[in-house]
Write a structure and sequence with these properties.
mainly beta, 15-stranded mixed beta sheet, two-stranded antiparallel sheet, 17 strands, 14% helix, 37% strand
């Protein structure tokens, strides 16, 4: 044996294969046992959304009737429907007997529509007293006397003038300047049912002021529907007879419409119609009280009958009955009318004086019969 040779080692025996397998299985089982017992010892971790869902279930839950199905035994029976109430049967009523003293349905007021021209002199039929309401503040009714407006003691005769044009020469005062070179025209047209009246003041070829009234001729005489006054701008008043009011175009509050109401132009012709219907009914000292509507307001105008006066005008000599409306309140105008019997009590002179002293005096120049 050589000196450097190592003694031979006996071979290391290899562990048997079965033993290794058993050892590996034992280790694996030990790990599995540890992993399976740990969760069971500490318990499950609650989900972080569990509490949130539990608090929001009240909000998102469906309605109670749908969430829980009702048990058949506990189902409440709906109340029986209420029987419908029987409607009372309308019993036919016997018509009320007509009053014994009622007027027949065909009875109408007197016809004032068929008016002849002024110079024909045909008298008109009488009309109700509502045309001239009873005066106020102590003034007596026009000659015949009456109670409150609308309470007529007897029919009042009238004569509506025929269509005519009256031409006037105009003098007056405006401030410090006298009114010169001004002419006026009063045109009255009526066809027996409707009328149109216009009063204009003209300087050279220009109209400086114009008033217009139109309406119907009815049982109460002249019944205006619209009145307008135009200088630079036009303002108007409307007679709403179905509503019983007067409405103004400038948004002034409306006023009640009284029986027999007139406007500032038609009142002149209505007074003449009353005078022409029965001149003896209105002697000096009598008075008319008529609601007179302007373009912005309405008031009771009282015209007092004065003595006759003789006038010498361009149109001729006239003996005229004078009527005066005196002012009763500040800023009221004084109005003076001269109505001539020989012209059917049409105006032959009209004078209007304002509170500041300005006035216009219209005196008749000519008369021309017209056709409507």
């Amino acid at each position: 044996m050589p000196p450097h040779a190592l003694p031979a080692q006996p071979p290391v025996p290899r562990p048997p294969w079965r033993g290794l397998a058993l050892l590996a299985a034992a280790v694996l089982l030990a790990h599995l046992a540890l992993l399976g017992l740990a969760p069971m010892a500490v318990g499950l971790h609650p989900s972080p959304l569990a509490n949130k869902f539990s608090t929001r279930t009240i909000v998102i839950a469906p309605p109670a009737a749908e969430a829980v199905a009702p048990q058949p035994a506990a189902t409440a029976k709906p109340p029986p429907p209420k029987p419908a109430r029987p409607r009372p049967v309308a019993r036919p009523q016997a018509p009320a007997p007509a009053p014994e003293n009622s007027a027949p349905a065909e009875a109408v007021g007197p016809d004032l529509t068929a008016q002849a021209p002024v110079e024909a002199g045909v008298p008109a039929e009488p009309a109700p007293q509502a045309v001239a309401p009873a005066p106020t503040e102590g003034a007596s009714a026009a000659a015949g006397g009456s109670n409150a407006a609308g309470q007529a003691e007897a029919p009042v005769p009238q004569r509506i003038p025929g269509s005519v044009r009256l031409a006037f020469a105009v003098t007056g005062q405006q401030g410090t300047a006298p009114m010169q070179g001004v002419f006026g025209n009063l045109t009255w047209l009526q066809d027996g049912q409707q009328y149109d009246a216009q009063l204009s003041l003209n300087f050279l070829f220009r109209t400086i002021r114009s008033q217009q009234s139109n309406g119907v001729i009815g049982a109460n005489g002249i019944e205006p529907a619209r009145f307008s006054d135009k200088r630079r701008n036009e303002v108007a008043s409307h007679f709403m007879r179905d509503q019983g009011t007067v409405v103004f175009s400038n948004n002034t509050p409306s006023v009640p419409l009284m029986p027999g109401a007139q406007d500032r132009l038609s009142v002149i012709l209505q007074l003449g119609a009353l005078m022409a219907g029965d001149p003896g009914r209105y002697p000096p000292g009598a008075a008319f009280a008529i609601q007179t509507v302007g373009p912005r307001d309405a008031d009771i105008w009282i015209f007092k009958v004065e003595d006759d006066e003789k006038l010498s005008l361009q149109a001729g000599e006239f003996t005229a009955r004078k009527l005066t409306r005196n002012p009763r309140k500040p800023f009221d105008d004084k109005v003076e009318l001269w109505l001539a019997p020989e012209l059917g009590y049409l105006p032959v002179r009209i004078k209007q004086t304002q509170s500041n002293g300005d006035f216009a005096d219209l005196q008749l120049r000519s008369v021309e019969s017209m056709r409507p």
